[in-house]
Amino acid sequence: MPLQPNRVGEDAPYEPDTWTNAAFVSVTLSAQDNEGGSGLKEIRFSGDDFSERVYQLQSILGFGNEGIQTIRYYATDNAGNQESPKTLTTKIDKTSPIVGSVTINGGDAFTNKTAVNLTLSSYDQGWEPSGVAEMRFSEDGTTWSAWEPFATSKEWVVSNGDGEKSVYVQFKDAAGNGSDTAQDIIFSESGSGIAPGTLTTDTFKVVQVKASGNVPVSGTVSYSEST
Which terminus of the chain, N or C, has less C-beta within 10 A? Predict the structure, then answer.
């Protein structure tokens, strides 16, 4: 006498034991006795936060509270035969993740490269949250990369050219709730063309300065770079 639960989340099918951000998940139960049997007597069910009760055939059970709910159910025929209890689990999360943050190159103000490293953080909230699952990126806040699994760091490439470069990020939890947008800014400058680490005290240029009394004085200025 198998029991056939039909689970529907709002206007779309719901797959049991998966996260959804639907306003509610509706459940209908049905059972049929084996051919030649005494016929279905009743279906009984219970949940994590309610006691066992008789199911009214063709009625709809609605579950809308956030969190994980396990429903237990079984059918009995008119001869007193009872099937082994079954379970189904609903997981509802309607709360968006905390927006979190994105930091470019550890918080550096300038870069002379288009390849940068992003440090990312976000966490989910609510009652039994589903957890931050995905992230996506943009340089203009309009055109976005594809969603990808959440990670705390990522290599990213900003556009060519000097000036202010922005990186935008959004996060999404396992139920499909999206966060607001986080942003960080770094200034890109191509520099003089001298590769980092090559400047030494041997690299210098002559400058012309004037001392008081308008007497021309020539001198040298050396540049050095620490790493």
Answer: C
Domain membership flag for residue 120: yes
Residues 6+ apart with CB under 8 A from 189: 110, 111, 112, 162
CATH number at residue 22: 2.60.40
Domain holding 59, by residue range, is 6-92
Tokens of 23: 């306003």
Q: Which residues contact 133 (CB under 8 A, 6 or more apart)?
A: 149, 150, 172, 173, 174
CATH of the domain at 144: 2.60.40.10
Structure tokens at 227: 């790493």
DSSP letters along 148-177, please? EE--SEEEEEPPSSSEEEEEEEEEEETTSP
List the beta bridge partners of residue 19: 91
**pLDDT for the residue numbered 11:** 57
Give the domain-ending residue among 74, 92, 110. Answer: 92
pLDDT for 166 equals: 97
| Lowest mean pLDDT segment, chosen from 132-141, 176-185, 209-218 | 209-218
- The CA distance from 87 to 159, in Å, is 53
This prediction's pTM: 0.73
Contact 63, 49 (CB under 8 A): no
Overall number of domains in the chain: 2
Four-residue CA torsion sign, 15, 18, 24, 26: positive
**Statement to judge: residues 146 and 118 lie in one domain:** yes
